[in-house]
Amino acid sequence: MIKDIKLAVLIDGDNIPSKYIKEMMEEITKYGTPTIKRIYGDWTKPQLGKWKTILLENAITPIQQYGYTTGKNATDSAMIIDAMDILYSEKVNGFCLVSSDSDFTKLATRLREEGLVVYGIGEKKTPNPFIVACDKFIYLEILETEDDNKDGIRTHKNVKLDKITPKVIQLLKNSVSDAADDDGWAFMGDVGSFLLKKQPNFDARNFGFQKLTQLFKSLKQFEIEQKDKTTGRFKLIYVRNK
């Protein structure tokens, strides 16, 4: 179960705006229980002072890291060293690396080599090497949301949504085909898994939809079918290429 997954959340305080923290911590609970929560930075700097209340409200431990050398990012080094210590302590099943810095690409790769799940969280400016090194990458901008509209589509504050291009359509079609049975029907959960394996930053919210099913329903190239489960109140959703 998701709740049995213990996560270490390591935040690059020099690289992440404080305004996203509340929504980010809520997002992380979808994937597991954040048992270790640390944020790294030089807390003697005035610009990091605004973090104080946010850290207390979210029980995040600040780790002091002085910038010993001009031009070198000491915060990155401290996060990487801590991550390896946590890895070998075997206290967690996965990591959330919160940064928009490609310097954590090798760390994400190393953690996955050890069999741990790695979630990356950062702004849309994040370089692609770090994104693809993670199992799943979530953009901070899509977490800052307004209310759902009448069509069930969640709008975003000052966020430029991605366009559904022919390339995106082809990615969806290929993923449906990969997960499909002999009749062409694919379970939506399996399709989502294939999409993340191919493109870790794929998220229906990037296109303005709260759920993957809503994204597929908006496209004429696919048909959707719902089936009742033999037990429980949830429906199983299947998709097929037209």
Q: How confident overall, as mean pLDDT?
A: 87
Helix tally equals 8
Uncertain ranges: none
Going by helix content, strand content and strand pairing, the class is alpha/beta
> Span from first to last CA?
34 Å
- Net shape: elongated
The fraction of residues assigned to DSSP E strands is: 15-25%
- What level of helicity do the residues show? 25-40%
The sequence of SSEs as H and E is: EHEHEHEHEHEEEHEHHEE
Radius of gyration: 20 Å
Major sheet attributes: 6 strands, parallel
Number of strands: 11
Q: State the strand order across the main sheet.
A: 3-2-1-4-5-6
Could you describe the 3D structure shown?
The protein is α/β, with parallel strands linked by helices and 242 residues long. It has helices at 21-28, 51-58, 74-89, 105-113, 128-132, 166-179, 188-198, 212-217; strands at 6-12, 33-41, 61-64, 94-98, 117-122, 136-139, 145-148, 154-156, 186-187, 222-228, 235-241. The strands form three sheets. Strands 3-2-1-4-5-6 form a six-stranded parallel beta sheet, sandwiched between helices. Strands 9-11-10 form a three-stranded antiparallel beta sheet. A two-stranded antiparallel sheet has the order 7-8. The longest helix is centred in the middle third of the chain and has 16 residues, at 74-89. The chain starts with 5 loop residues before the first strand and ends with a strand. The mean pLDDT is 87.
